[in-house]
Task: structure prediction
Amino acid sequence: MCGIVGYVGPQQAAPVLVEGLTRLEYRGYDSAGVAVLNPRSSAHPSRVVRAQGRVRDLEAALPARLAGTTGIGHTRWATHGEPSERNAHPHTSYDGRVHVVHNGIIDNFALLRSRLTEEGVELTSETDTEVIAHLVARELSAGLTLEDAVRAAVGQIVGTYALAVLDAQAPERVVVARNGSPLLIGVGDGEMFVASDPAAIVRHTSQVVLLDDGDFASVTADGFHSFTDGEAKTARAAVTLDLTVEELELGGHDHFMHKEIHEQPESVERMLTGRLDDRFGTAKLAGLNLEPRHLRRFERVKVLGCGSAYYVGQLGASMIEDLARIPADAEPASEFRYRNPIIEPSTLYVVVSQSGETADTLFAVREVQRKGGTVVGLVNAVGSSIAREVDGGIYLHAGPEVAVASTKALTHMSIGFALLALNLGRVHDLSFADGQRIIAGLRAIPGQIAEILAGEESLAAAARELATAPSLFFIGRVRGYPVAREGAQKFKEITYRHAEAYPTSELKHGPLALISPELPSVAIIPDDDLVERNITAAQEIRARGGSVVAITHPGVDLGDAATQRIEVPRNEVELDPILLTIPTQLLGYHAAVALGEDVDRPRNLAKSVTVE
Ligand code: G6P
Result:
């Protein structure tokens, strides 16, 4: 989604802003812009440069000297108004005095626009953001300070926002406000930063202050003060970021997606450290904030997430049913929050999110809490909104994920679910021996992922073949179905080829009509009690001229049911889907590379969707 960066200090602001924006590009990237203030130039106290396209297009548009030591920048992912230079942020007020960057959505912007138009203000963009610049300017012209003007303007808007505001007549400060969109302040030595994502400022400081909804802050080179609507000052302390610059570099890989796929053996190993309890055959999950006797009281589990996180949630629900034998299901958080769901005190709600900022998932958390339910989170981004609002949770410790198409964070989610299922199982009927069996299976996963990745070349060859098809099926049944869903999702989001997931069992009830030599299938065929049925379904496809790439286990006799065979090592049957997913990551990746697509930045998609 959109990204914000801001700077106040002794350095020239423009290079700091551009570097920060480059690191935020993965969040949204149809246009970008910066505004800098230069108190020494009376002719040009403020300059704004904006460009459609990438941050590198903005860089090319910057004048050689863009002097100024206070500034704000933005990368945009269009919501209101097409991607274009005039819709790019920063937006400027009618009098040229105020510059604003904004993440989020202003719900009452149409009303505010028409009011401003009636007052004679000429609006120059189609965005919802522009109204904020005019509102702040109007308050400033009535004699308010920038802090008070921002507060007064925010009082008139309804919606979600992370805002950074400049006043050309107060060039030593940036005023920020947060409601529903992430925002943090970076504390440097004699300089301060503002960002929507720590990635933007990690090169400069590891000390950050996470703002809460309802917070405002006035940021100058030597510090900041935060306050709220009611004027009360708030004390927000700095925390240390768990993020390094190296983690945000490609490190010899062509794409972040490739790097992140290959990080998995090590990152999973790290995630499991200290979490497996051999003595009791369970998982240690102190962050859940739930004692075993409380956990036991839950009679049902509802998993909520969006996109790929929802598909992993399906996998998680089946692990919970398998290991804890309590009913569990998954639902898209985006649907759940809008359907007036019945919240049961005996249900454990589990939200799952890489970014911890997905608006639909965050609102689902609030819906559950408002109605008295207990909600825990499986979240990757430490200190994110969801992580802070849930009643407890499991941090995924996947490290930063930059590629829009998620891979390692999803693997960590599924392992997080395995830990949760194990924990729930052991307070229900899962035996100590079975607990130990799952622990041994989990310990084997890092090495087994490495084994799968060692077969990358043959996966790449299969992917190149699949890339030639205009459309394809991903099929699997029961535990294999979420694997197929995620495989299809990954494939379509980065190759732009139509890929549809279907339960293998349902093929004969309709989609078989589509099978032809032009429509290949990727079939998930683990060596479980459904193996024979899955092979029969693959044969039915072959009999109708379709080709089948089978992702299967060693020893499974596919006969002529598959045109291509991809093997993954066998683990415990409950954990097998985690490993069966790994080849689908490489299939999507190599197909997109073969097609020459921009793997890390698929069109129209954002890494985390912080608007509704
Ligand atoms: C967006 C992304 C998806 C992601 C989903 C949930 O739609 O494009 O890749 O799965 O959000 O993101 P989250 O950060 O909550 O896991």
